[in-house]
Amino acid sequence: MKLPLCPxxxxxxxxxxxxxxxxxxxxxxxxCGKRFRISAGRGLAALLPAALLVLFxxxxxxxxxxxxxxxxxxxxxxxxxxxAYFLIPYTVRYRPL
Length: 97
Ligand SMILES: [Zn+2]
Description:
The structure is a single chain. The chain is an alpha+beta fold. Helices cover 48% and strands 14% of the residues. The protein is built from three helices and three strands; from the N terminus they run H-E-E-H-H-E. Helix 2 packs antiparallel against helix 3. It starts with 14 loop residues before the first helix and ends with a strand. Bound molecules: zinc ion (ZN).
C-alpha cells in the first residue's frame, strides 16, 4: 500500500494532503494543474475486513487471558480502529477525469 500519485505527472502527495482530499470527489494536482478523480482504491475493500478480522482475533485472544479487564480490551480495540483509520489514505487512488 502506498499513497496515491498524480495520474498525469506522477507527483507525490503527502499524507495530510491525501487525508484532506478524501472528502472531495475531484482534486487538482499542484504540480501540473490537471484535475483528477479521487476514488477509494481496491485496498479499502481489503483493509476493512482485514482490520476487523485482526481486531476480532486479538480481542478473542485477550479474552482467554484470566483477569483481563474490559477497559484494556476496549483500549486495544480503539487502538486497532485508529490504526485502520490511519491506513485509509493509503488506499485512496487518483484517476484521470
Ligand atoms: Zn500532476
